[in-house]
Fold:
Amino acid sequence: MPPIEIRPGIFWIGVNDHTTDLFEGLWPITQEGVSYNSYLIVDDKKAIIDLAKSLKVDEYLAQVGERIALHELDYIVLNHMEPDHTGILRVLRKLAPQAVILCSPQAKEMVTAFYGITENVRVVQDGEEVKLGGKKLVFFLTPMVHWPETMVTYEEESKVLFSCDAFGGYGALQGAIFDDECSQFDFYLRESLRYFANIVAKYSPMVLRAIDKLSSLQISVIAPSHGLIWRKRPEHIVERYRTWSQYAESGGEKGVTVLYGSMYGNTEVVVDALAQGIAASGIPVDMYDARRIHASYILASLWEKKGVVIGAPTYEAGLFPPVAHVLDLALRKNMKHKKMLYLGSFGWSGGAKRELERLARELDWEIVSTFEFRGGGKREDIETVRKLGEEFGRLVRGSF
Ligand SMILES: Cc1cc2nc3c(=O)[nH]c(=O)nc-3n(C[C@H](O)[C@H](O)[C@H](O)COP(=O)(O)O)c2cc1C
Ligand SMILES: [Fe+2]
Ligand SMILES: [Fe+2]
Structure:
């Protein structure tokens, strides 16, 4: 795509990725795609801020070439070493050996470890400034948003914050690159939450720290390295990120995620009855069949909602594995402080409930009630469970 000027002298030179199925080898983006936003600043000095994954290298270099010759490039700013932003580095270094790599103290060794580059790398400290002409870059270290070496770059004249992973989201750009041009706003917000839950959520305290640290800056544009560029309402995505980060402590907002799986349908019938009860209590319910829906999507809902229903039969004296897999990820992502209800069928001596109770302790999830039953749910069970659902919905609603 041709470069797009986002402010005078500042160009988006990113690429869309429509061929990677799994972001980080883990999170599905087959349908949604992702963008690697890279930026070129043309002033007396020329700088590129963040690169792209090692794909579409020709397209990327052609975009740079529309504005400058590579031998004119003075700086390559690496806000973050993850290869989705640095994959092109080795090629770029060969083509523009004179360009000085600017990176955080912790990134320097990583530049060598990942790319074997030792020459022409300059470490910048927190708050350090580099003048480009009328424009000036200021660097702020934001450790663990998303790796220890992560920083953000602020261009003072145009008040653009190049925030890298912070404020980013899945979803390839569809022509429109700005928040105010885009007609798929809900899609990008949904994909930002999924990205947050998958990638950043574990580091919520560091996100809040970074937002605090940057709060005194005047920001006219937030230019992240994935997804939309926020020039009309940069505060919108900052507020979203702040709210999502606060869920780490609060456990989320009003609503219930129903996460279930079933081998022969016994658990499923009862889960359906329970969901009816929750819906009748007037609280939002999202249902996810763990057998078929990738955990990436379920984690977004789990992160956002305070209430969780786990519906899982016993499988080999433990939890049905597709459900256990999502819970394992929730634990790894630090998704804590939920209110939970469990139901599930078993055949002889059970075991799912026991495993869930152990997990709940680790997750710091409060078990509000459990309903474990042998074989198929009886008629009266269905009625009991529907009532349980209503009570659970009211309890979750009442906790706000
Ligand atoms: C592969 C497999 C393993 C199972 N392991 C156990 C077990 O260890 N303990 C138990 O009580 N029931 C076990 N069961 C029985 C199921 O928990 C029982 O059939 C239950 O009703 C299944 O619920 P569903 O219809 O929701 O899948 C197992 C069933 C299958 C198919
Ligand atoms: Fe990252
Ligand atoms: Fe990234």
